[in-house]
Amino acid sequence: MGVVAIYLLSQPDSPAPGALPPAAAEAPAPPPSAPAAAAPDLSRFQGGKAPPAPMVYAPAPVPPPDSWEALPIARERSLGPLGGALRAGLDPLSPQLSACLRAAPPALPGSTTVSEAAGDEDVSDGGGMPAVVLHIETLEGRLRIVDAPVLSWSGTSDVAMGCVQQALRGKSFAAPAAHAGRKLRVAYAIPQ
Q1: Which of 36, 74, 128, 137 has the fewest other C-beta atoms within 10 Å?
Q2: pTM for the whole thing?
Q3: Which DSSP symbol is given to 115?
Protein backbone atom coordinates (compact mmCIF):
# COMPACT_ATOMS: atom_id res chain seq x y z
CA MET A 1 0.00 0.00 0.00
CA GLY A 2 2.76 2.40 0.66
CA VAL A 3 3.82 2.12 -2.94
CA VAL A 4 0.33 2.98 -4.18
CA ALA A 5 0.20 6.03 -1.91
CA ILE A 6 3.50 7.30 -3.22
CA TYR A 7 2.28 6.78 -6.78
CA LEU A 8 -0.94 8.69 -6.21
CA LEU A 9 0.82 11.54 -4.49
CA SER A 10 3.28 11.88 -7.36
CA GLN A 11 0.45 12.31 -9.94
CA PRO A 12 -0.64 15.83 -10.93
CA ASP A 13 -3.90 17.04 -9.66
CA SER A 14 -6.63 16.01 -11.98
CA PRO A 15 -9.40 18.53 -12.66
CA ALA A 16 -12.70 18.14 -10.98
CA PRO A 17 -15.38 16.46 -13.04
CA GLY A 18 -17.11 19.00 -15.34
CA ALA A 19 -14.45 21.65 -14.97
CA LEU A 20 -12.89 23.12 -18.02
CA PRO A 21 -9.35 22.16 -18.70
CA PRO A 22 -6.83 24.88 -18.05
CA ALA A 23 -6.04 27.08 -21.05
CA ALA A 24 -3.40 25.54 -23.19
CA ALA A 25 -0.20 27.31 -22.78
CA GLU A 26 1.39 28.43 -25.95
CA ALA A 27 4.27 26.29 -27.05
CA PRO A 28 7.49 27.98 -26.23
CA ALA A 29 9.39 29.41 -29.21
CA PRO A 30 12.32 27.27 -30.35
CA PRO A 31 15.67 28.47 -29.11
CA PRO A 32 17.48 30.76 -31.53
CA SER A 33 19.51 28.68 -33.95
CA ALA A 34 23.25 28.88 -33.88
CA PRO A 35 24.88 30.76 -36.82
CA ALA A 36 26.01 28.57 -39.74
CA ALA A 37 29.42 27.09 -39.16
CA ALA A 38 32.07 29.20 -40.89
CA ALA A 39 35.19 27.73 -42.45
CA PRO A 40 37.90 27.39 -39.83
CA ASP A 41 40.59 30.05 -39.82
CA LEU A 42 43.79 28.21 -40.74
CA SER A 43 45.92 31.32 -41.12
CA ARG A 44 47.76 30.57 -37.90
CA PHE A 45 49.15 27.44 -39.59
CA GLN A 46 50.25 29.35 -42.70
CA GLY A 47 52.06 32.11 -40.88
CA GLY A 48 49.23 34.52 -41.67
CA LYS A 49 50.05 34.38 -45.39
CA ALA A 50 47.94 33.37 -48.33
CA PRO A 51 49.03 30.19 -50.10
CA PRO A 52 51.74 30.84 -52.69
CA ALA A 53 50.70 31.41 -56.27
CA PRO A 54 51.61 28.66 -58.73
CA MET A 55 55.01 29.07 -60.41
CA VAL A 56 54.78 30.52 -63.91
CA TYR A 57 57.83 30.12 -66.12
CA ALA A 58 58.74 32.52 -68.87
CA PRO A 59 59.19 31.06 -72.33
CA ALA A 60 62.73 30.18 -73.31
CA PRO A 61 64.52 33.12 -74.85
CA VAL A 62 64.57 33.09 -78.62
CA PRO A 63 68.12 33.10 -79.96
CA PRO A 64 69.04 35.86 -82.40
CA PRO A 65 68.23 34.80 -85.98
CA ASP A 66 71.86 35.01 -87.12
CA SER A 67 73.22 32.86 -84.24
CA TRP A 68 74.21 29.20 -84.40
CA GLU A 69 71.59 28.35 -81.76
CA ALA A 70 68.80 29.58 -84.08
CA LEU A 71 69.59 26.76 -86.53
CA PRO A 72 67.89 23.38 -86.07
CA ILE A 73 70.13 20.44 -85.26
CA ALA A 74 70.40 17.98 -88.14
CA ARG A 75 71.61 14.39 -88.35
CA GLU A 76 74.23 13.38 -90.92
CA ARG A 77 71.82 11.08 -92.75
CA SER A 78 69.32 13.92 -93.23
CA LEU A 79 71.86 16.04 -95.11
CA GLY A 80 72.07 13.85 -98.20
CA PRO A 81 75.38 14.26 -100.09
CA LEU A 82 76.66 16.78 -97.52
CA GLY A 83 76.11 14.21 -94.76
CA GLY A 84 78.09 11.63 -96.74
CA ALA A 85 80.95 14.10 -97.24
CA LEU A 86 80.90 14.95 -93.53
CA ARG A 87 81.03 11.26 -92.55
CA ALA A 88 83.92 10.68 -94.99
CA GLY A 89 85.80 13.62 -93.45
CA LEU A 90 85.14 12.61 -89.81
CA ASP A 91 85.96 8.90 -90.14
CA PRO A 92 89.77 9.44 -90.32
CA LEU A 93 89.54 11.55 -87.11
CA SER A 94 87.86 8.75 -85.12
CA PRO A 95 91.10 7.29 -83.66
CA GLN A 96 92.26 10.74 -82.53
CA LEU A 97 88.88 11.55 -80.96
CA SER A 98 88.73 8.18 -79.18
CA ALA A 99 92.24 8.77 -77.85
CA CYS A 100 91.09 12.11 -76.40
CA LEU A 101 88.44 10.31 -74.37
CA ARG A 102 90.69 7.43 -73.24
CA ALA A 103 93.95 9.19 -72.45
CA ALA A 104 92.91 12.63 -71.26
CA PRO A 105 95.20 13.83 -68.46
CA PRO A 106 93.66 14.90 -65.15
CA ALA A 107 91.97 18.26 -65.27
CA LEU A 108 93.84 21.30 -64.04
CA PRO A 109 91.58 24.09 -62.78
CA GLY A 110 91.15 26.75 -65.44
CA SER A 111 93.41 24.95 -67.92
CA THR A 112 90.76 24.22 -70.55
CA THR A 113 87.92 26.29 -71.91
CA VAL A 114 85.16 24.08 -73.26
CA SER A 115 82.17 25.44 -75.14
CA GLU A 116 78.75 23.93 -74.47
CA ALA A 117 75.69 23.75 -76.70
CA ALA A 118 73.11 26.20 -75.38
CA GLY A 119 69.48 25.13 -75.19
CA ASP A 120 70.00 21.70 -76.77
CA GLU A 121 69.47 19.58 -73.65
CA ASP A 122 66.37 17.96 -75.13
CA VAL A 123 68.19 16.62 -78.21
CA SER A 124 69.02 12.92 -78.17
CA ASP A 125 72.77 12.46 -78.20
CA GLY A 126 73.08 8.91 -79.44
CA GLY A 127 72.48 6.67 -76.45
CA GLY A 128 74.48 8.18 -73.61
CA MET A 129 77.73 8.62 -75.54
CA PRO A 130 79.71 11.86 -75.30
CA ALA A 131 78.48 14.09 -78.11
CA VAL A 132 79.05 17.50 -79.61
CA VAL A 133 77.11 19.76 -81.96
CA LEU A 134 79.23 20.50 -85.00
CA HIS A 135 78.92 24.09 -86.21
CA ILE A 136 79.64 23.74 -89.92
CA GLU A 137 79.88 26.37 -92.59
CA THR A 138 79.75 25.48 -96.25
CA LEU A 139 82.37 26.77 -98.64
CA GLU A 140 82.39 26.16 -102.37
CA GLY A 141 82.99 22.41 -102.60
CA ARG A 142 84.01 22.11 -98.91
CA LEU A 143 82.67 21.83 -95.35
CA ARG A 144 84.50 23.50 -92.46
CA ILE A 145 83.93 22.87 -88.73
CA VAL A 146 83.85 26.21 -86.93
CA ASP A 147 83.17 24.87 -83.41
CA ALA A 148 82.00 21.73 -81.62
CA PRO A 149 80.14 22.67 -78.41
CA VAL A 150 79.44 19.82 -75.99
CA LEU A 151 75.97 18.34 -76.29
CA SER A 152 76.42 15.43 -73.85
CA TRP A 153 79.29 14.96 -71.39
CA SER A 154 78.39 11.37 -70.43
CA GLY A 155 81.00 11.29 -67.69
CA THR A 156 83.92 12.70 -69.68
CA SER A 157 86.20 15.36 -68.24
CA ASP A 158 86.54 18.91 -69.47
CA VAL A 159 90.10 18.08 -70.54
CA ALA A 160 88.86 15.18 -72.71
CA MET A 161 86.16 17.32 -74.31
CA GLY A 162 88.63 20.16 -74.79
CA CYS A 163 90.88 17.72 -76.66
CA VAL A 164 87.93 16.64 -78.84
CA GLN A 165 87.02 20.24 -79.62
CA GLN A 166 90.61 21.12 -80.48
CA ALA A 167 90.81 18.13 -82.86
CA LEU A 168 87.58 19.19 -84.63
CA ARG A 169 87.81 23.00 -84.82
CA GLY A 170 88.99 24.31 -88.15
CA LYS A 171 88.92 20.94 -89.93
CA SER A 172 87.63 21.08 -93.49
CA PHE A 173 86.57 18.31 -95.86
CA ALA A 174 85.87 18.02 -99.57
CA ALA A 175 82.15 18.16 -100.31
CA PRO A 176 81.44 18.54 -104.03
CA ALA A 177 77.72 19.27 -103.39
CA ALA A 178 78.49 22.17 -101.00
CA HIS A 179 77.85 25.78 -102.02
CA ALA A 180 79.32 28.72 -100.12
CA GLY A 181 77.28 30.60 -97.51
CA ARG A 182 75.28 27.98 -95.63
CA LYS A 183 75.49 27.20 -91.90
CA LEU A 184 74.62 23.82 -90.40
CA ARG A 185 74.46 22.31 -86.95
CA VAL A 186 74.94 18.56 -86.77
CA ALA A 187 74.79 16.31 -83.70
CA TYR A 188 77.85 14.04 -83.57
CA ALA A 189 78.40 11.22 -81.08
CA ILE A 190 82.12 10.84 -80.39
CA PRO A 191 83.39 7.31 -81.10
CA GLN A 192 84.90 5.57 -78.09
Answers
A1: 36
A2: 0.62
A3: -
